[in-house]
Amino acid sequence: MNGDQKFLDILEELKALHLKKAADYGSDDDPLQNIRGAAKCGIAPHHAAWVRALDKVHRINRWYSKGSLANESVEDSLMDLAAYAIIVLRLLREHERLVNECGDPH
Questions:
Q1: Per-residue model confidence as pLDDT tens digits over 71-80
Q2: Most exposed among 47, 75, 80, 106, judged by the fewest C-beta atoms under 10 Å?
């Protein structure tokens, strides 16, 4: 099996979204710079990304209860949620690797 083609198409859309957002929010050396900035406030970047994901969950729940959103489509919110889930996973793996190499910083 090659997987569901429509699913794979969405992954390509998600890749394009990540590249577009990284150009706006990241830096040349770190596409996730905006999320890593939470560390300056003592918040682990993977926690900061999860909070942003929860914001999207709240928006999507609002869409399910009201049937509409004022400023962003439900598809945009779902794409952002998927992207944040991957960002959380990526930053969590990085955090766990650093903890294994250097010990827990807290």
A1: 999 999 999 9
A2: 106
